Amino acid sequence: MLKETFIKMNFRKIPAILWGFFIFYLTIKPKKASDHEFPMWLMTIKPDKIAHFVFWGIWFWIYYFSVRYKNANHEIQEQKPFYQRSDFFAACWMVACGALVEFLQWYTDWGRSVEAMDLIADTLGVFLAFWLLNRKK
Q1: Distance between CA atoms of residues 134 and 78, nearest Å
Q2: Rounded distance, CA 137 to CA 135, Å?
Q3: How far apart are the two ends of the chain, measured CA to CA in Å?
Q4: Which of 26, 32, 39, 129 has the CB geometry, 3.0–4.6 Å to 57, for a possible disulfide?
Q5: How far apart are CA 101 and CA 84, in angstroms?
Q6: Within the chain, which residues score under 50 in pLDDT?
Q7: pTM of the predicted model, to two decimals?
């Protein structure tokens, strides 16, 4: 009984875990010479920052709906202050993963560039999703 509950509970986390690996792959994979650059007019809005913002926000969104809404203790969790809830810790964990990605881009010599704005975009994406999903209706 306990094993079945554990498997069922962790099975719901698989979409969030897979999305996290997808993001990790896209941001760490070695940059090839064949990777094309964006047109100059598009570089003014920094599409890679938008991608960081959107991908990390989607990651939190997937986590939230795959775990939080299926949680039997949803009502109990809702009464806790935001900093004591599991989704807040998940958001912090996702931001830490963004910092790890930036560190690995700096540490490895795979042609990736380290930018603080990437981490800021990751953080804004996660916490905007956190705020949108947790605001009082």
Answers
A1: 9
A2: 6
A3: 37
A4: 129
A5: 26
A6: 34, 76
A7: 0.72
